[in-house]
Amino acid sequence: MKHLLSTADLSKDDAILLLDTSAQMAATQSRENKKLPTLRGRTVVNLFFEDSTRTRLSFETAAKRLSADVINFSAKGSSVSKGESLKDTALTLHAMGADAVVVRHWASGAPQQLAHGGWLDAAVLNAGDGTHMHPTQALLDAFTMRRHLVGLRGGAGEGVGADLAGLKIAIVGDVLHSRVARANVRLLHTLGAQVTLVSPPTLLPVGVETWPCRTAYDLDATLADWQPDAVMMLRVQRERMSGGAGAFFPSTLEYTRYYGLDGRRLGLLPEHAIVMHPGPMNRGLEISAEAADSDRAVIVEQVANGVAVRMAALYLLLAHTEASTEAHTEGTSL
After folding, report:
1. Which of 164, 214, 284, 298 has the most crowded CB, counting CB atoms within 10 A?
2. Which residues are L-aspartate-binding (predicted)?
């Protein structure tokens, strides 16, 4: 694995290796000294063309905990704002000797172009491209589900090598503009889970019928009758809605009434079910404060798990070799 661009590129073995390695990374983070020397001397560039808080800080923390040198690049205030092309930015990073480039871009496909354009010799990690993909978000979501839910419906069981076979996951809301939804559908299918997308018809993309999942329009019926093990609420991305939110649903009040997760709908879920959200949340729109702050919610844990997952991705891309799958790091094998 030279790059991490899309969950559609991951085999089941690749995905489980990433999740197992994430579990090892997470175990090291409970120690007093959280830093590992694994990527000492390597340079990781965070190349962000879109605003980000959680993903950028998570990648930066992950790289630093692996002892890599980190360079944070923001399009604002850089030569990109003067019209510099992606190619010329890539050539600059190549000249600086970057070993890995973490890229978030407003254009779908930009990380693939960066990885395969022949402009730099570095591992490329997609931190979100347009409405296309967000692979590390899907991996941290799967990692969180595995910690809480594996074994409930006859899956492979907890621990190393576990998949998500038999689990039922509902992904609810603005699927049309969500790279998180696209990434999760592909990864969860690969890991054996069943996925239902619940959304108003106006917020489902063209061609969704070809995705490896089912679709539904009635959230109450899905929760009560299908009984999902996890409900993932998607942010309503009003900034991506040309013509404004009113072009996709009549009002925010109506959207919340039909597709918002609140205390009443929590009561429709199985007792073991968890509530997820990739963040940032629109409290009072797609999720109520009661649901977001409930004991079922694992939203803050998702953020913490993101560091371990991104440590695993950087490690497997930069330090892992076929000849030696173990790096001895202060008593911890990875």
Report:
1. 164
2. 82, 179, 235
Binding-site residue numbers are 54-55, 82, 104, 134, 137, 179, 235, 279-280
Report which residue type is found at 214: R
In the chain, pLDDT over 70 holds for what percent of residues? 90
Q: Which two tokens stand for residue 128?
A: 């979100």
Residues of the chain where predicted confidence (pLDDT) is lower than 70: 76-83, 151-159, 246, 320-334
What residues form DSSP beta bridges with 73? 47
Q: Angle formed by the axes of helices 54-65 and 299-318, to 10°?
A: 50
Task: Say yes or no: do domains 7-133+303-333 and 135-301 share a fold.
Answer: yes
- CB-CB neighbours of 16 under 10 Å: 21
| Gap between the Cα atoms of 149 and 296, Å rounded | 12
Binding-site sequence positions for carbamoyl phosphate? 54-55, 104, 134, 137, 279-280
CATH code assigned to 7-133+303-333: 3.40.50.1370
Annotation: binding site for L-aspartate: 82, 179, 235
CA-CA-CA-CA torsion for 239, 240, 246, 248, nearest 10 degrees?
-150
**Do 14 and 124 form a contact (C-beta atoms < 8 A)?**
no
